[in-house]
Amino acid sequence: MLKIGILGGGQLGQMFLQNAYSYPFEVYILDPDSQSSCSKITTHFTQGSLKDFDQVYEFGKQMDVVTIEIETVNTDALKKLVSEGKKVYPQPEIIELIANKRLQKQFFKDNHLPTADFVLIDSQVDLEKNIGFLPAFQKLAQGGYDGKGVQQLKSAMDFDKAFTESSLLEKKVEIEKEIAVIVARNQTGMVAYEPCEMVFDEKLNLVDYLIAPARLTEEQSQTAQNLAKTVIEKLDMTGILAVEMFLDVQGNILLNELAPRPHNSGHHTIEAAFCSQFDQHLRSITGLPLGNPLLHSKAGMLNILGEEGYTGKAHYQGLENALKTEKVYLHLYNKHITKPGRKMGHFTVLGDTYDEIEQKIQYLKKTLRVISYEL
To answer: Quick one: CA torsion of 115, 117, 123, 128, rounded to 10 degrees?
Structure first.
């Protein structure tokens, strides 16, 4: 039986496992947290560091295929596994490139792919040299996620809060929408999902909810899908890739960031597509024919976040009322401890119209709160 090893045992691993149980494969998880989402739903769980060479290598050499659900892994160990004939998807060099936002941006530029202007920053002196580039967003080269590691610098007055680590400045773009395309590729072919549009929580700087398919013209939708396919082809990547983009006010589509794994912007595909992003991921890394990415329904996805002011054992207030809503599907992530802004789960919402989906999302936002009685 084929043995698949996943580096990372959070919610993405959990949803991958739930899909993989339908296949004749064994899936093994490595994660540093003994209470991670995956630890509760599989006996094939190993507690260990994703950054330690020996632990990643020893885990990986027992597998037929190794993949990731997070980019912060020891790629040197993965390269050694590849040299010994193990299949590692996405390829270690691609993980390294995408895990570093500076390298990502340089890849876009080198391959003449549309993206916002940027400059690389290594010191306070570099910032001061580029005052004329503001307003811009400063992004840490590595380590940023879920809104962390990104901040807006409007003028030199903001330099006192600037990151001192290796980073980049990305020119602020006047944006009409933020969109994302999930694309998958292996030796059997390549498929792209229709773009979704993402609505961000401005305070937390992460996705609040999304609508799919995005409200775009047919030409814009096709341009976005073609751009995602071009990116994965130029990377020569096997696996699934989330391609985040901007639609600016002039109607241009610009690349923002990449994630070489299933992504928050593809969760709606579990209920709304003929083949979910997690099924597509499994198919892509095992060499199976890729599935049908078409949506059979309009959909929304609402992140369920920990309520501000509550840290402790999670309590889902209003859950029963939320679940009375038709065509609403609940996914909780097996996280017992809630924190402000922590992703605790998501709802998928299906509907016949965008208005119906938006109304359901707003109702769910008011109805369900993740709180704790242990303040």
So the answer is: -160
